[in-house]
Amino acid sequence: MSAPSEAPAPGARPLRRFGIAARLALIVIGALVAVQVLMLAAYITERQRAAPLGPFVPMLQRIAALAQLMDHLTPEQRTLALKAASAPGFSPGYVTARPQIDTPRLLAFAARRVRQLTDGPADRYVALALIGAERRGGAAIERLSDLRGARLRVAVGLADGGYLEVLAGGDLAVRLLGVPVGLIAGILGFLVAAAALLLVLRETRPLSDLAEAVDRFGARLEPLQVRERGATDVKAVIRAVNAMQARIAELVRMRTLVLGAISHDLRTYLTRLRLRLELMPASGQVAKAEADLAGMQALVDDALAFARASFTPASGERVDLAALALAEAEARRAEGGRVSLSGADAPLQVEGARGTLARVLANLVGNALAYGGCADITLDDLGDRVALKVEDRGPGIPVAERASVFEPFYRVEPSRNRDSGGAGLGLTIVRQIVEGHRGTVAISDRAGGGACLTVILPKAAES
After folding, report:
1. Which of 234, 324, 352, 436 has the smallest count of CB within 10 Å of its CB?
2. What is the pTM of this model?
3. CA distance 294 to 292
4. What integer pLDDT is reported at residue 110 of this predicted model?
């Protein structure tokens, strides 16, 4: 059984938990964010130095101050003041007819602010509106796309009955929203970054496919050819892994064939020896020889089952684990075994091979009866998984040896030895089959004494 993965050390870097694609994405995004922050800081600093009147609120203060000044000027002085106040993006004028401006709700706060800054009567006429660029005829803003080149039109009533009308343009739309012009560059930068991330994911996808194939092959020994794509070195790695899968699968297949042939021939010889022993007069030596033959037969059967379990993948068959457990319990009881079963009232469907899953149950129950005197089987529905527990009342398995008992021919001494029967392959076969079905097997202590072996298998997908 593969050793459980160690928990990351407290000081481990967070990046270690991410794959290569996620790491590259974080690096690219982090670099872009850092660049945008620096650009934003530089832009704000430069704007504060070069254009202190650029922000929206100072512009309103400028308009209010100009309106206050024109309230105290003669017509001749008013003309000079308007010329002096004119600047790129700021065009003031004097009109006698009230401008037809409807202040939108979004700019109502700005109208109140101008009225307060002029220190005039509370009913002073103040109106503001956003209008489109000159090429659009100065129509009102209706879509976000119209904000490009938009201008602010402001009208303020004066003491002599006339009106101050100001048309402000340039980067006004950006200033109205309180966001620097560099935002456009930032948006473009993030769009470019998104495209780069898509390319990164495209380049790293072959590595993800390769990792999935290797993981599946390690669990089932079922070769899964990965399509060669990506960079040259990535293609070379994929090609090598595909060849490695084929070679390993062929080696395991040949091992299974050899073990099968040996098992077949050994069974022939064992059958001959058993017949000859039956023809001999009964004696103590004959009884010992028959016991040795039975042990040899069990060893051959277990070795062949281990070889087959390590190469036979889980099929797509839907298997009712509850029905298998019920059949195993009834068979053991018929042989005189102390077996109990709970949780098998409703079907529990898993995906796999019926014969190999039946061997898992047989091995676990057989071990519990041989070393613990009883076998208590429990099935639990965990939602997307099924838990199978087999508990006994034996001496249990020490914590230090729980990983080793899944190794071939390993026995826990002195309680689990050759005198108890078996070849030491039962739990090894269980582990091979369970991992081939994308499941896990673990050992724990049973309350009150004894061992508890828990197998967890994923449920079959709903058809």
Report:
1. 234
2. 0.48
3. 5
4. 85
- Give, in degrees to the nearest 5, the angle at Cα 394 between 393 and 397: 120
Report the distance separating Cα 108 and Cα 302, nearest Å: 87
Q: Is the peptide bond before 347 cis (omega within 30 degrees of 0)?
A: no
| Burial 229-266, CB ≥16 within 10 A → b, else e | ebeeebeebbeebbeebeeeeeeeeeebeebeeebeeb
Assess contact for 175 and 55: CB atoms under 8 A: yes
- On whether both 296 and 325 belong to a single domain, the answer is no
Query: Does residue 339 sit in the same domain as residue 443?
Result: yes
User: What strands lie across the sheet with 163-168, from one edge to the other?
Assistant: 90-95, 163-168, 151-157, 126-131
State the pLDDT confidence band at 5, using cuts at 50, 70 and 90.
very low
DSSP assignment of 183-206? HHHHHHHHHHHHHHHHHHHHHHHH
Longest CA–CA separation in the chain, Å: 144
pLDDT digits (tens, 9 = 90+) for 160-172: 889 999 988 654 4
- Clarify whether residues 39 and 188 are in a common domain: yes
131 neighbors 141 (Cβ within 8 angstroms):
yes
- 124 is written with which tokens? 């002073």
- 103 and 156 part of one domain: yes
28: containing domain: 16-49+183-215
Tell me which residue of 320, 412, 324, 328 sits closest to 365, measured CA to CA: 328
Q: What per-residue confidence (pLDDT) applies to 176?
A: 44
Phi, psi of 445 (to 5 degrees): -85, 145
Which stretch, 8-22, 271-285, 297-311, has highest mean pLDDT?
A: 271-285
Mean pLDDT value of segment 413-432: 64
φ, ψ dihedrals at 355, nearest 5°: -65, -45
Number of domains in the chain: 4
H or E segment and range at residue 22: helix 20-50
Interval 306-365: pLDDT, tens: 666 655 555 567 899 999 999 999 999 999 999 999 998 899 999 888 888 888 999 999
